[in-house]
Structures are given as structure tokens and as C-alpha cells.
Amino acid sequence: MSSSDWQLRHKELTEAGLIVQTSALPKIEKLQSLIPLIEAANSSGVRLLDGNTVEELMSIVSHEIDDSSNGKKYLSQSTLSKSKSEPPIGRILAPVGSTTPPPLPISRHSSGFSREDFPLEAKEIDSDISIHFDITGNSSTEGKITDMQSCFRSRLSQIREMMLSNGALPRRPISNSEAWKNRRRYNSRDFEITIVGLASEVNWTRNGYMRFVLEDESTQISCMIKPPSDAHPLHPSLDGLMDDEIIGVTGRFSSGERDPIFWVDDIHKPPLTSHSKSQSGEDFAVSAAFLSDVHFGSKTFLHAQWEKMIYWFNNDPLARTVKYFVLSGDGVDGVGIYPGQDRHLTIKDLFKQYGELARLLEDLPEWVDVVMLPGNHDAVRPAEPQPALDPEVQQDYSNTVFVGNPCDFSLHGVRILSYHGKSIDDFVATLRSVSYSKPEMAMRAMLERRHLAPSWGGKTPLSPEPEDRLVIPVVPDIFVTGHVHGHYVGDHKGTLMIHSSTWQDQTDFQRMLGFKPKPCILTIVNLHTYATESVHFA
Ligand SMILES: [Fe+2]
Ligand SMILES: [Fe+2]
Predict the structure, then answer these.
(1) Domains of the chain (ranges, CATH numbers)
(2) For 86, 114, 240, 521, which has the most beta carbons within 10 A of its beta carbon?
């Protein structure tokens, strides 16, 4: 069969709602007409055609009956028999006359995710993972004050360079020391200047002006901004600034005072223009599943729902598209993470928690590769960036790639930035727009600042790496976090943002705070089309 013939046949089958795998090709080639195959597939509720299915469906077709009264031939109403142990082939959307409930009463929220967009099953496709940044084995800090200074300088120069090369500033900035030296000259609108530095000591005056300090390598300058009358609530003068985030400001010094302040007319953020996503190849489309915060070993781990997910993985045709399972930290509940944690644990031994988590993951289909990051409950240093789990822990796992937190990696060319999300605590504490019920606002704020965790001395322990590796140098196609135990899927300026769900029920602490988690939601993304599906197991 020529390739154009095959393309026509493939199109005809696809238009009939069938998904054709390459193993079906030799069988389909031999058919005179596709109509009997399509009819048999429809009457059997089959959507996925592989070599075996085509053979079985064609055996139904051979049971043609001859209606001698009108001389016409009809297909019998035979359908494929299914043994109890055999998983259903394809998805029966509305089985006519069936009284048995569907095997997977699972609600979904889809953005056009379709099994038909995957020419092959995930098990037929080789893994393609490349790591761009992972601190594991690359940490070089000695924890000295000079490392910290170097980390801040590195942050300032990386983000200032981004601003300069993307035209994010109205003019070339001058250094704070030069600005201060010439403060008497730069004191009118005719002599406005732009400076860039780390913001700190943010507060508001009684009349709503925002005050802060801007510091570069040499000098601190006190700044003040009056929020514009038409300012959006997300304008930094209303929303706030994170301690130690990098901004540029344009303005002038006040005159006639002993300690003049810098009156800011405009605040400039690092560049974040509309991002154009890379796609995996159409012929090798696979999907990735995202989850975080399993908290295995805790009494609130949701066992029954996990079993339901494993059943889904082994039975639902959609699961056959899932090549990767990204776990973004807090895989186990850990030991000694907070005072009194012991009474919330079913497994009080840390290595047993990891051993049992390995066994849980063994139940995933063998074609699924796991990518696992640590979080703040894991047995690695808490200071970020965190290295991957210890090799002693790793040896219990198969099909798992262990990486640090954060990790910048690609799956089939799709660039993913996965970060556990501990710094969301700092964003909630600082920015007016961010709350625990809206972790996506913190994710948005991270992208806008091109930094995952800017605040030193806040709730997020940071490792003073001489080169600041928490800067976001490359805008990701997919940005994923966890930690807060919520759930979100959405877009921000072309980046798909996923806040991964947890597998832990509401804890006593969360109940006390009135926080309701959103557990047991698996987020699946087609790495070619970026269509998503959120599968609910709770
Ligand atoms: Fe967590
Ligand atoms: Fe966490």
C-alpha cells in the first residue's frame, strides 16, 4: 500500500472516531473496504485499533447473515466478548441497554484532551528526558557570608541583564552610587534616572504611599512611590514587593532635604513577554501526569483513592497515553518535620516510608517513568535548591529518575520547570494578591519576577550558592509546583501553570486554619497539543 493510500485509510478511520496503532497496519492493508471494520468497531464499542482488535473485529464481520426475504446482506449484532479479567478496549461512552455501572465513575475536567491525538501508546515510545539544571552534585556553597554576597550579586546581574537585553527599562540604568553622588542634579523631571537593585524593607505610609529600599552592589537608596490613581490591584505599589526581588525604578531625588529620598514614577519588572511553547512531535505524542505531596506514611494518606488511581492507570485508555509521572516533592510525610508529628504517622521510620512509597509506585504500569523531586518533608537538606534523594533511598525504586528541587528539564523537547513550592508561604505572607486558596497567584508572581524564592530570611530556607540557581533564566513551557495541597491548571503569558494536587486528606493543622485541600486530582497534559485533563479520584 502506498503511503498516500494509507493516509486516506488512516483519515477515514480517524474520522470514524477510531484510534489506529501501528500494529494494526498490516491487518488494515489487507482489507478491501473499511466499512465492515468501522461498523463492527462501533457495534462493539471499540475505539482503539491494534493488530489483535482488527483481527477480532473482522471475525465478527465474517458472521454475515443472509436475509433471503429481501436478498440483502446484514452484519450480525455480535460484539467482541470481554473476559472479566480483560481490560475494556477503548471507551464505551453510553452502553445501550447495559445495567452495569461504568467501571470508573471518575469525574474529569478536560480542555480538549482526546485519546485520538495519540497515534501510538506510551509503551511504544522511548523515554526522552533531558535535565538542564539540577543542583545534585553541583552545590558549591561553603555557607560563608561571601557566598551569600555572591548569590545576591549573581541574582542582580542575571536579572539586570535580562532587563537590558529585552528593553524592559526606559533607559540605560546607572549605578546607585553614581545616582547618589549626583542626587542634587537628578532632582527634577528633566533629569529622571533609572536604577536597578534588590528591594527590601517594604511598607506603606498612612496615606498609602509605598516605601522601600533599593540596594545594588554598592549603595542603598530609600525610595517612595505614590500608587497611580488608575493602578491595577496587581501594580507593585498596591500588591507589594517581595524582599530581595530585583526591580528597576525610574524617578528623581527629592530636593531641599538633608537625606533625600528617591521619588519613583515607575517600577520595572524583569521581562516576561508572551511565550511560545515547544511541542513534542505529533507522531510521538505522549502525555505527562503531575502530582505532588503524596505524604506517604501519614495517617491522612488516602489509600483507597490511590488504589482507584492504580485501577484507572491499568484500565482506562487515557492512561495508555501517560509516559511520565512527575512527583513534585513531599513524596513521604517524613519524620521530625514539625513538633508532635509522630502522632500523625502510621509509619514512624523514615526509610520504611520511602520503601513503602517505592512499592506503591511499582503498581503503576511498567511503561510509566517517574520523575521525583524532594520537598520540605523529604530526607534531604531543607535549603533550596535541594539535591535529589539519597542513593540509599533510590535503590528501592525502579523506573524512577531522581532530581533536585527545583529541576529544569525537558520531556520530548517540552521544557518543564518543576519546583516543590515552599516559597509560596513567603508569597502568601507578603503579596496582597496571593492566598493559600490561590497558589497560582504565587506561581504567576514567581514567573513575573523570574525568581522562585527571592526572600532571604523568610519561611523558605535558602542555600547561598555563589551563582543564584533559583533565578528563572528560561521561561518554561510548563511550570509546576505543589506544597500547598491545592489544585490549579491555567495559562500565564503562554506558560502552562500546574499546581499539582496532593494525596493527603485535610490535616488537623489545616482544619485549624480553615484550609480545605483539593486532594486526589491527577493532572494530565498532552505534550504535543497541551490539552489537559484533570482526573478526580476523591
Ligand atoms: Fe506537602
Ligand atoms: Fe511541602
Answers:
(1) 3-103 (no CATH), 129-139+284-536 (3.60.21.50), 169-268 (2.40.50.140)
(2) 521
